[in-house]
Amino acid sequence: MNCRHCGNELALEMVNLGCSPASNAYLRDKDAFKNEITYSLRVLVCEQCWLVQTDDQVEAEALFTDEYAYFSSVSASWLKHAKSYTEVVTQKLGLNKNSLVVEVASNDGYLLQNFVKNGIPNLGVEPTAAVARAAKARGINVIEEFFDTRLANVIAMDYGKADLIIANNVLAHVPDINSFVQGFKELLSEAGTVTLEFPSLLNIITQNQFDTIYHEHYSYLNLCVVEEILSKAGLKVYDVEELSTHGGSLRVWASHQESSHHVAPSVNEVKQKEIDAKLFEPSTYLAFSEKVTQICEEFKAFLVDAKLAGKTVVGYGAAAKGNTLLNTAGVKNNLISAVFDSAPSKQNQYLPGSHIPILPPDAIESYKPDYVVIFPWNIKDEICQYLATNSRVNWKYCIAIPNLEIFDG
Ligand SMILES: [Zn+2]
To answer: I need a surface site. Which of 126, 266, 285, 293 has the fewest CB within 10 A?
Structure first.
């Protein structure tokens, strides 16, 4: 396989997570267990541009179906994050009723609804019908297609060029990253800004976040390679912020190459951190793979010991992260009896691969759990708080990443 960005042949393996179903392929009933399709999940590293990428056979169309169940608005902390971003960017770029904001992967309108409220013209691009419908119900105009250079030109023709293009947690989901980024160049107004948010490879490596690896993620990004990809498309990174979202993300601010923006010191600072963390040395990736094996073995040993001791273990959060951990560690529904999730779209279905039933959170007490494994460790405080408010907590919590940890709520 060749690099999605520079075409170099990929020889360095970061990790091989074996075969598993697509992480959002929830199963409606037990009959669906036997027809489950699995795909290999292997991550390779380009030693020329250092784009980390999945060696993937899953077609994007197979993953982003109407059943793709993630609605951004279910997370209170993510809504808050979106609202404060809107305030900052509106002020910083001086957006008003004559501006145009385009969000790529606008999901259910969790972010654009803030621009609607403020009277700033906006447009969403979202190929997933179920979430696009939810955005439209919020009064947002949505184009239901995949974003690429072609669509960027269509939008520029029909709506004019964008003063702000937002792309949060989507760059990693794109198979053809070059065409996607070239689309920003085509659609961006002369003085416009693109902001991109993506989980930082630096955190994935240093915090052992291998559970953020799944088929829907084609690449794992560092600032150096993102800067290079943008630069090839005629765009320049002029600022970067380090965020705590998704276990550590970067928010990159970019403009046309010839814009008057000065490059902020943070750009070189973050790049230096990546160099210091040895992200551009093969040995880092080999060590990561060994750490993944160790985490999976420890997690499974904990579950087996709990089972032998007659304890009940359940999970919380039927997120993609949990599926990667469970399927890599080879954990099935004999070790974790149920997983609870507040999203109605997932309830009363089964997790892909592990076949653990998904139930509404109010059923958790009836299971009398001794341990609750929190899969979305990035929002563990929010989850503990939610459960403390809504149920009588007399169990211990467990997270597996960055290392196995048992704690009281
Ligand atoms: Zn490359």
So the answer is: 293
Dist. CA 351 → ligand 1 center (Å): 34
The C-alpha atoms of residue 165 and residue 142 are separated, in whole angstroms, by: 14
ipTM of the complex: 1.00
CA of 9 to the centre of ligand 1 (A): 8
Whole-number Å distance, alpha carbon 256 to ligand 1 midpoint, is: 23
Band of residue 68 on the pLDDT scale cut at 50, 70, 90 = very low
At 293-314, the pLDDT tens digits run: 999 999 999 999 999 999 999 9
Closest by CA position to 195, among listed 244, 242, 253: 253
Tell me the two tokens of residue 401: 């990443």
Is the distance from CB of 252 to CB of 195 less than 8 angstroms? yes
User: Could you give all domains of the chain from N- to C-terminal order, each with its CATH number?
Assistant: 12-280 (3.40.50.150), 295-408 (3.40.50.720)
Which residues, other chains included, contact 287 with Cβ-Cβ below 8 Å and sequence gap of 6+?
none
